[in-house]
C-alpha cells in the first residue's frame, strides 16, 4: 500500500548524505581497539592465575611425589630437622582454630546484627555499627599484638581453671600453654565478628517491613517476629557471611603465627596445647626453608592446600547462597502461580501448597505470660552477646589509644628505628631463631616504616587500581552474558579467596628467591604481592558501581552519536566515579594492613631507604618484629606503630566514605 | 553533485540560525523533483521539501536471537511530518524504532534484516559508520535521561562536545536548542545547575534539546511522554508540532489520543507486522483494516 504513494528521496540529498557520512569523523575506529585492549586485560587475570597455580604446583611437586597427596595431608610429622613433612597437624590446627572462631564468633556476630537492626534504640545503632566498622579496619597484626601482649597472659588463669574443671570433656584438660589453639581461635573470632556482623546486618536490613509488620500485627512478640520473619529471610546471608568469615579465619596468618606457638609435629591433645596452622607455618618457616629445597616444597604444598581449602569453602558458600536465593524465588513463583490458578477458579493442587516465604506463624501454644518471658530472655541474650562483642573490641581500641598514644611523639614519627631491633636481629627473628634481647633504651622511631608503607602501598595502588577498574569495565560493558566474561568473573572470585600469605609465598618463590632485579628482597616485590591481593577487591567493588550506572545514560549518549569508548570514558566512569573511589580506597586500606605478604617480599630494613628496588621497612613488618621481641621498649614501639597504622587506615576509610556521599547514583 | 552551489542540507558544521526560536525552514513551496532511485526501484513520485529527510524501510525484520520481533515492514517516513506509531504492547513498534538508528543491535544477539534508507542511503550498508548514522538520526527516550554529572548547559552541549564540533559557538547552539525545546525561558538563569534537578517534564524537554543540538535529520521518539504528567505532556506535544518544521519525526506512542493530536500520519502495528499506515484522520475514522478499527475503537489493547 505504501509503494503507490511513496516519495522518492532526492538523489542530491543522497549524495550529500554520503558525502557527510564520509566526512564525519566519529572516532568509532577506536571502538574495536578499546574492546580488544580491555578483553586482553581481562585475559591477563587468567594468565596470572594460571601461572600462579602452575608455579605453586611445580614448586610443590617434590613433596607430593615423595609422600603422595593423602600421606602429605594426614601424616602428622612436620619435622624440618629430620626432613619429614606430613602436614596433618597443620591441617588439623587450621580446622580447629577456624572452628573455634566460628563457634564463638558467629552467634555473637548474629546477635550483634539483630540487636542493631531490631532491638537497639535508634541512637545506639549508628554507634554500635560504627564501632564494628572501625574494628573491621584494624589490621590483623594489631589483633595479634593485642592478643599476645594482653589477652593471652590475662586469660591463662581462666583457661587453666576451665581445663582443670572440665577435663572430663574430650580435648579439654592438661597443662595450658600460653600460646594455644583456643586463644588463637578466640582472637580469630574477634577478628571475624565485624565482617560476619556487617553482612548479617545488611541482609537483615532488607527484610521487608511488610513481613515484620504482618508478624507484629498477628500479636507476635518482638522475639517471635525475629524468629518468624527476620531469621528465615536472612538465613542465606548469615551463612554467606559466616563462610566469608571462615575464609578469613582459615587464611589468617600473622595473628595466628604470633599466638599459636608453632608446634608442628603432632596435634595437641587439648585445645589448650600449642600447634600450628597451614598459614602460620608458612610465615614462621619460609626463610629457613631457602636452604632446604624439600622444606620449601613442603611449605608451598601447604600454601596450595590452604588455597584449595579456601576455594572449596567459598564454592560451598556461593552454592548455598544461590540455592537459598533460588528457593526464595521459586516459592514466590509458586505462590504467584497458585494465585493465578485460584483466579481462574482452579482448586490448588494438593502437594503444591501455597508456600509464601516466611508467612509469620507466631506460637499460639504458650500463654501470653510465658511468651513474654521467652521474649525478654531472648532479648536479654541478644543484648548481652552484643555487649560481649563490644567488650574486647573496646579493650583493644582502648589499649591501642592509651599504649600507642603514650609512645607516639614527634621524634618517634621522625626518627628511624635503631638499637636492638636492627636489621640482623629482626631478620633472625623471622627465621625463628632465639630471641635477641634488646639492650638499648633508645630504639628510635618508625619514620622508615611509615614512608615504606606509603611507598609500597602507593606503587601497588597506582598500578592495580587502573587495571582493576579496566577489567570491571570490560566485565560490565562488554563481558555481560558472554562465556569469557563469566569465566573472568569466576576467576576473580577464585582470586578473592586466595589467602594473602599464599600470594606472599608466590611472589617469594617467583621474584625473591630468584633475586629478580638484583636484590632478593625489594619494596616493589611487596607491591606486587599487595597488588595481587588488591586486584580482585578493586574489581569486585567496581562491578556493582558500574552496573548501577543506568543503561538509559549509555543509550542516550550512544544515540547522540558518541562512540562506545567515549561513552565509557565520559559518561559511565564520571557517573560511577565516587563509588569507584570509595571501593579503591577501601581496597588500598585493606592492603595497607597486610603483614604476611610484606615480610615475605620487602624484607626488613630499619634505616630509611627510599629505593623500592631494595629492602624497605613497613609498619606491619615493624610491628611484627617488635611484638615478638622480648623487650618492653620494643613492645611500646609496636603499640605506637600499630596506632599509626590504624590511624592511616582509618583516614583512608574516612576519605572513602566522604567520596561515597558525593555519589549521584543511589 | 559534490559541488552543489546551494546546499540545502545544512552542513553540520555551520553556525546555527540563531534568530531566536526554531530556525525558519526554507521549504515553503515543495520542490517537485523527478528522480530515480539507485537500486532498481524506480517509482517516480514527487519528493518532499528539499530540506527534509526521508526514511524508507524495505522489508525490515528485527530479531532478538531467533525471535523475530518485527516481521518485514515496508514504510516511508516522510520529510517534515510526524509519523505516529501505535499498536499494543509487544507489537514491535519500539523495536522497529530502535532499528532505525541502529540502537537495536546494542542488545546482545539482536540483528536487523532488510533495507533502511535515509535519503536513499542504506544505513546498514557494510562499512557505514554506525556512530555517524546516529548523529543523523537522533533519539528521545521513554524516560528522561539527562547526564547526572553535567549541568543543563553541559547536557545540551554534550553531543557537540563529545563529537568535537568546534566551529559552532556552543553557547549560541545551547540557547538555540533550549529555545527549540521550549525550555529556554525556564532555565536561562540557571544553566549551570545540574540537569537532574529539573522536573520530569523539563528533563524530557532538556533531552529533546540535547537531541536537536547536534541537528540530526530525523528524530525518533520512543513514548517520550509516558513518564510525564498531562501538562508536561501537552508541552512536549506542542513542541513536537513545532519541531517537525525542521526534522522528520517518528513518534512511538501508547496513547492513541496523542497519535491523533500530533501525528500527520499514523502507522498501526500488530504482532510484528505493519497493518496499516495512512493519514491520521483516516486511521482514526475510517481505517481500511478491521484490526485497526478494533484497536482504535478500544476493543483490545
How would you describe the overall organization of this protein?
Chain A: GO terms for molecular function: phosphate transmembrane transporter activity. Chain A: It is found in: Cell membrane. Chain A: The chain crosses the membrane at residues 33-54, 87-115, 127-152, 178-199, 249-268, 297-321, 381-402, 456-476, 488-514, 526-546, 567-589, 638-659. Chain A: It comes from Patulibacter medicamentivorans. Chain A: One of its GO terms (cellular component) is plasma membrane. The complex is a heterodimer of chains A (666) and B (301). By secondary structure, chain A is mostly helical. Chain A has 2 domains: 92-286 and 327-341 and 354-404, MetI-like fold (Orthogonal Bundle), CATH 1.10.3720.10; 408-478 and 500-661, MetI-like (MetI-like fold, Orthogonal Bundle). Chain A has 24 helices and no strands. In chain A, helix 6 (140-165) packs across helix 7 (181-205). Chain A is globular. The two termini of chain A are 50 Å apart. Chain B is of the alpha/beta class and 301 residues long. Chain B has one domain (55-296): Rossmann fold (3-Layer(aba) Sandwich). Helices cover 30% and strands 21% of the residues of chain B. In chain B, the strands form 2 sheets. A 6-stranded mixed sheet of chain B has the order 6-7-8-3-9-10, with helices on both faces. A 4-stranded antiparallel sheet of chain B has the order 2-1-4-5, covered by helices on one side. In chain B, strand 4 (110-118) and strand 5 form a beta hairpin. In chain B, helix 3 (152-162) packs across helix 4 (170-180). Chain B is globular. Chain B starts with 54 loop residues before the first strand and ends in a 5-residue tail after the last helix.
Short summary of the structure?
With 666 residues, chain A is mainly α.
Amino acid at each position: 500500500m505504501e509503494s503507490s504513494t511513496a516519495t522518492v528521496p532526492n538523489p542530491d540529498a543522497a549524495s550529500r548524505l554520503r558525502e557527510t557520512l564520509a566526512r564525519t569523523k566519529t572516532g568509532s575506529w577506536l571502538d574495536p581497539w578499546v574492546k580488544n585492549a580491555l578483553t586482553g586485560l581481562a585475559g591477563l587475570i587468567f594468565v596470572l592465575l594460571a601461572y600462579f597455580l602452575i608455579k605453586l604446583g611445580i614448586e610443590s611437586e617434590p613433596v607430593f611425589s615423595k609422600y603422595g597427596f593423602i600421606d602429605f595431608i594426614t601424616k602428622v610429622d612436620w619435622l624440618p630437622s629430620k626432613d619429614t613433612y606430613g602436614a596433618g597437624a597443620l591441617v588439623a590446627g587450621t580446622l580447629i582454630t577456624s572452628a573455634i572462631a566460628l563457634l564463638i564468633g558467629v552467634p555473637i556476630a548474629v546477635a550483634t546484627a539483630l540487636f542493631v537492626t531490631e532491638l537497639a534504640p535508634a541512637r545506639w545503632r549508628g554507634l554500635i555499627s560504627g564501632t564494628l566498622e572501625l574494628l573491621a579496619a584494624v589490621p590483623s597484626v594489631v589483633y595479634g599484638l593485642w592478643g599476645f601482649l594482653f589477652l593471652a597472659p590475662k586469660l591463662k588463669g581462666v583457661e587453666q581453671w576451665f581445663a582443670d574443671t572440665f577435663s572430663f570433656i574430650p580435648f579439654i584438660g592438661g597443662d595450658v600453654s600460653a600460646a594455644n589453639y583456643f586463644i588463637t581461635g578466640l582472637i580469630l573470632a574477634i577478628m571475624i565478628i565485624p565482617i560476619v556482623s556487617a553482612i548479617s546486618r545488611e541482609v537483615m536490613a532488607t527484610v521487608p517491613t511488610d513481613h515484620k509488620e504482618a508478624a507484629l500485627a498477628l500479636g507476635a512478640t518482638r522475639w517471635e517476629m525475629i524468629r518468624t520473619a527476620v531469621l528465615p529471610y536472612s538465613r542465606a546471608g548469615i551463612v554467606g557471611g559466616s563462610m566469608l568469615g571462615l575464609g578469613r579465619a582459615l587464611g589468617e596468618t600473622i595473628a595466628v603465627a604470633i599466638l599459636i606457638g608453632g608446634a608442628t609435629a603432632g596435634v595437641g591433645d587439648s585445645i589448650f596445647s600449642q600447634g600450628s596452622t597451614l598459614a602460620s607455618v608458612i610465615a614462621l618457616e619460609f626463610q629457613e626453608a631457602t636452604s632446604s629445597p624439600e622444606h620449601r616444597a613442603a611449605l608451598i604444598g601447604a600454601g596450595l592446600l590452604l588455597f584449595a581449602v579456601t576455594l572449596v569453602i567459598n564454592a560451598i558458600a556461593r552454592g548455598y547462597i544461590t540455592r537459598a536465593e533460588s528457593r526464595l524465588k521459586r516459592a514466590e513463583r509458586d505462590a504467584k502461580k497458585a494465585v493465578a490458578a485460584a483466579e481462574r477458579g482452579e482448586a490448588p493442587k494438593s502437594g503444591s501448597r501455597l508456600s509464601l516465604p516466611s508467612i509469620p506463624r507466631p506460637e499460639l501454644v504458650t500463654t501470653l505470660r510465658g511468651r513474654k518471658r521467652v521474649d525478654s530472655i531472648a532479648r536479654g541474650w541478644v543484648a548481652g552477646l552484643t555487649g560481649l562483642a563490644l567488650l574486647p573490641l573496646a579493650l583493644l581500641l582502648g589499649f591501642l589509644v592509651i599504649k600507642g598514644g603514650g609512645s607516639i611523639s614527634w621524634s618517634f614519627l621522625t626518627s628511624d628505628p635503631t638499637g636492638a631491633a636492627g636489621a640482623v636481629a629482626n631478620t633472625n627473628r623471622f627465621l625463628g631463631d632465639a630471641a635477641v634481647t634488646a639492650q638499648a633504651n633508645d630504639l628510635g622511631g618508625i619514620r622508615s616504616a611509615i614512608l615504606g608503607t606509603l611507598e609500597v602501598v602507593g606503587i601497588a595502588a597506582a598500578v592495580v587500581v587502573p587495571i582493576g577498574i579496566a577489567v570491571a569495565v570490560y566485565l560490565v560493558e562488554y563481558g555481560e552474558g558472554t562465556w569469557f566474561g563469566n569465566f573472568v568473573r569466576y576467576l576473580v572470585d577464585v582470586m578473592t579467596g586466595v589467602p594473602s600469605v599464599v600470594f606472599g609465598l608466590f611472589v617469594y618463590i617467583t621474584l625473591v628467591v630468584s633475586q629478580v632485579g638484583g636484590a632478593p628482597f625489594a619494596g616493589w616485590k611487596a607491591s606486587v604481592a599487595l597488588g595481587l591481593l588488591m586486584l580482585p577487591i578493586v574489581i569486585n567493588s567496581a562491578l556493582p558501581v558500574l552496573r548501577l550506572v543506568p543503561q538509559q545514560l549509555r543509550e542516550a549518549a550512544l544515540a547522540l552519536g558518541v562512540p562506545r569508548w567515549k561513552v565509557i570514558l565520559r559518561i559511565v566512569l564520571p557517573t560511577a566515579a565516587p563509588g569507584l573511589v570509595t571501593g579503591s580506597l577501601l581496597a588500598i586500606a585493606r592492603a595497607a594492613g597486610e603483614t604476611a605478604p610484606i615480610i615475605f617480599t620487602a624484607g626488613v630494613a630499619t634505616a630509611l631507604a627510599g629505593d623500592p628496588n631494595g629492602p624497605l621497612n613497613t609498619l606491619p613488618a615493624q610491628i611484627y618484629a617488635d611484638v615478638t621481641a622480648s623487650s618492653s621498649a620494643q613492645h611500646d614501639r609496636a603499640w605506637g606503630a600499630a596506632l599509626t597504622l590504624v590511624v592511616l587506615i582509618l583516614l583512608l576509610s574516612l576519605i572513602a566514605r566522604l567520596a561515597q556521599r558525593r555519589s549521584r547514583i543511589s | 553533485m559534490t559541488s552543489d552551489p546551494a546546499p540545502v542540507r545544512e552542513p553540520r558544521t555551520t553556525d546555527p540560525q540563531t534568530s531566536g526560536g526554531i530556525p525558519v525552514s526554507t521549504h515553503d513551496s515543495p520542490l517537485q523533483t523527478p528522480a530515480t532511485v539507485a537500486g532498481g526501484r524506480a517509482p517516480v513520485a514527487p519528493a518532499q521539501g528539499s530540506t527534509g529527510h526521508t526514511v524508507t524501510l524495505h522489508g525490515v525484520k528485527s530479531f532478538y536471537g531467533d525471535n523475530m520481533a518485527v516481521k518485514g515492514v515496508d514504510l516511508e517516513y516522510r520529510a517534515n511530518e510526524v509519523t505516529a506509531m501505535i499498536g499494543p504492547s509487544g507489537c514491535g513498534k519500539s523495536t522497529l524504532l530502535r532499528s532505525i538508528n541502529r540502537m537495536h543491535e546494542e542488545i546482545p544477539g539482536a540483528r536487523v534484516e532488510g533495507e533502511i534508507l535515509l535519503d536513499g542511503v542504506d544505513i546498514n550498508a557494510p562499512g557505514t559508520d554506525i556512530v555517524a548514522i546516529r548523529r543523523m538520526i537522533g533519539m528521545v527516550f521513554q524516560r528522561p535521561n539527562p547526564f547526572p554529572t553535567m549541568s543543563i548547559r553541559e547536557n545540551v552541549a554534550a553531543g557537540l562536545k563529545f563529537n568535537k564540533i568546534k566551529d559552532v559557538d556552543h553557547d549560541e547552539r545551547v540557547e538555540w536548542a533550549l529555545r527549540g525545546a521550549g525550555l529556554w525561558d525556564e532555565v536561562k538563569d540557571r544553566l549551570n545547575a545540574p540537569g537532574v534537578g529539573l522536573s520530569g517534564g523539563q528533563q524530557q524537554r532538556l533531552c529533546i534539546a540535547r537531541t536537536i543540538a547536534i541537528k540530526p535529520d530525523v528524530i525518533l521518539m520512543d513514548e517520550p511522554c509516558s513518564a510525564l504528567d498531562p501538562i508536561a505532556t501537552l508541552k512536549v506535544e506542542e513542541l513536537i508540532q513545532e519541531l517537525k518544521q525542521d526534522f522528520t519525526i517518528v513518534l512511538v506512542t501508547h496513547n492513541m489520543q496523542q497519535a491523533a493530536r500530533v501525528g500527520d500520519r499514523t502507522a498501526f502495528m500488530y504482532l510484528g507486522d505493519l497493518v496499516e499506515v495512512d493519514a491520521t484522520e483516516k486511521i482514526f475514522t475510517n481505517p481500511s483494516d478491521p484490526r485497526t478499527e478494533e484497536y482504535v475503537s478500544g476493543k483490545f489493547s
